[in-house]
Amino acid sequence: MSKETGSSISSKLIFCLLAVYIIWGSTYLGMKIATKVVPPFMLSAMRFLLAGSLLGVIGYVKERSWPDRRQFLSACVVGIALIGIGNTTVALAVHHMPSGLVALMVAAMPAWIMGMDWAFFSRKRPSYLTILGIVVGFVGLFLLFNPFHVQENRSFPLWPVAIVVVGNICWAVGTLLVPRLPMPTQITSTAVQMLAGGVFSFLVSLVFEPGAIDTIPFMTTEGWQAYFYLVFIGSLVGYTSYSWLSKNAPPRLTATYAYINPIVALFLGWAIGHEDISAMVGVSATVVISGVILMTLGRR
Questions:
Q1: Residue 81: HSE in the Cβ half-sphere, 13 Å Cα cutoff
Q2: Chief localization class (predicted)?
Q3: Has this prediction a pTM greater than 0.70?
Q4: 171-228 per-position pLDDT tens digit
Q5: Do 112 and 167 touch, CB atoms closer than 8 A?
Q6: Which of these, 8, 19, 192, 236, could form a disulfide with 241 (CB 3.0-4.6 Å)?
Q7: Which CA distances in Å does 226 have to 34, 195, 231, 253, 284?
């Protein structure tokens, strides 16, 4: 490898890492802003139907392939699990809770993936360091949302916590299904997943968010800016950066986004969204992120 080529790869590595760190960490605040007028499921439908359509065109131009029936159905199942339920429940939660706290709950995703994989898929027992990380992570979440501790100044309900847990489980299952199902080529697969998740979110919105379509004309300028940011930056640039990292960077380095994202989300929620960060939130965040780091280091 020439010095110029090595330098180019290093620069791209840094750019993609920063993109995933900042972009994916900022999408929590973006969803909170965009859902001020348009309900969460309708927002997700709008976001992923547009992003999936654009990515589908890109995938066809670059990959020149189209999935067969089994591949298409597999991608749809994964898309409903990852996007239709997993991502949309996050949009629902940030609508009712501080975006930084929701990011901390999502940071525990590696625990759900490893636990579900151990229980239902590979049956491969995690390392002791990983198990320790899972325990530490959930202790941090308990400190953060302790239902037995009455907080008079709590400004948000706790029921979205259960919604995020369901979404995390669905995201974990979808992630574990990907290598076990016949899937299309990479970009086309992601496009189909986005479209399937968008259609699912739209149907759910029609049932549980009556009048959601009528809210679209009332979207504020700030809301539209957040929406297009989620589509073009969050979905397309963020995905492209993560896709490149998954092929060209060490897995442990790529996995660092899991504990950088909540830090970014907490900071942006405080600096831009005017969300309160109490001492307990700081302590709980430190415990959760420590658990995620242990889980990452403990991967075999």
A1: 17
A2: membrane
A3: yes
A4: 989 888 988 999 998 889 989 999 999 999 999 999 999 999 999 999 999 999 999 9
A5: no
A6: 19
A7: 6, 20, 9, 29, 28
